Automatic annotation (TrEMBL):
Protein's name according to its UniProt entry: Histidine--tRNA ligase
SUPFAM superfamilies reported in the protein's UniProt record: Class II aaRS and biotin synthetases (SSF55681)
Bilayer-crossing regions: none
Gene Ontology MF term list: glycosyltransferase activity; histidine-tRNA ligase activity
Gene3D superfamilies xrefs: Bira Bifunctional Protein, Domain 2 (3.30.930.10)
Residues involved in L-histidine binding: 65-67, 92, 106, 110, 298, 303-304
Keyword set, alphabetical order: Glycosyltransferase, Transferase
Amino acid sequence: MPTSTDTLAEARRLRDLFAAKGAQVIKADVLQSAETLLDLYGEDIRARAYLTSDPLRGEMVLRPDFTVPVVQMHMEARADPARYTYSGKVFRKQETDETRANEFVQVGYEVFDGANPAGADAEVFAAIAQGLAGLPVRAATGDIGVLMAAVRGLQTTDDRKAALMRHIWRPQRFRALLKRFGSAAVTPARAALLAADDPFAQAGPEIGLRTRVEVQARIDALRADAAAPPIATEEIAVIDAILGLRETAPNVLSALRDMAVDMPAIGDAVATMNARLEALSKHGVDVASLEFEGSYGRTSLEYYDGFVFGFYAIDRPDQPPVASGGRYDALTARLGQGRAVPAVGGVIRPDLAVGLR
């Protein structure tokens, strides 16, 4: 069992390693404004983060990770390109697993550089792999950008595509929506509601937070959705095939190229993956044996929108990842008030790394 002294020594080693690659060492406040996180992730974040109230600063949160404050710092500084490293504790609720720590140290490496996104992806992955060199770990990778491109390419309404995009990080809800949008069937209760000339005829007084106008807008949206044709079975099959991919990266790339014939919308994402694999190879990564999973990264915090990866202890499948990371371009646009900067980063848990030595 690693001691706190061992963990802090490993954290310093990793931070110094990343700083030697040109990363600026930065710090972030432990207490962060909850407003930003609630705006990004909605009320779901309350189940994962520790929130408190400050009489002057309002609702605050113990930082659940470093990415959001680092992006905020970068967007305010307007430096481009830029590299950052940091070390410190993060705090996460663990409601379903008492064995997992609810506070632990993270050391990170973040790259903001739009000149060569595929090269930046490879740089971060290789830097994290170097930090873990010699440890018995395996790497897993994925690309949420491929799935997003497939959703955007569906021949269906914008509202349906927006709903699917919102729930990409909730696999069960995403699957339920895809099944519903692929069927023309409507439940009897919903059919009766949509067929009514005046759905409020038997309604009582307004109760709760939703107004009659908001309820009517929702009914109108349901009517529009019911009138839309179902998503084609062939398109759903492509998405199922993407989510079911689990092979070495070169084999997945070959399969995705075949899928792009039936769904050209994923063509650019597939080309990006090809460029990334070439860049990884130049960094000395054994691409031929690199694992790729089509559904990887969909249960992480909801800002990854491209390349995702994790490193896992080979003999400890019960442990959380020793390291993880990915691309989060869309987050920079959200926090930069529309100004986006391509960004990718990764973090290592030094306590878990020390435990494997």
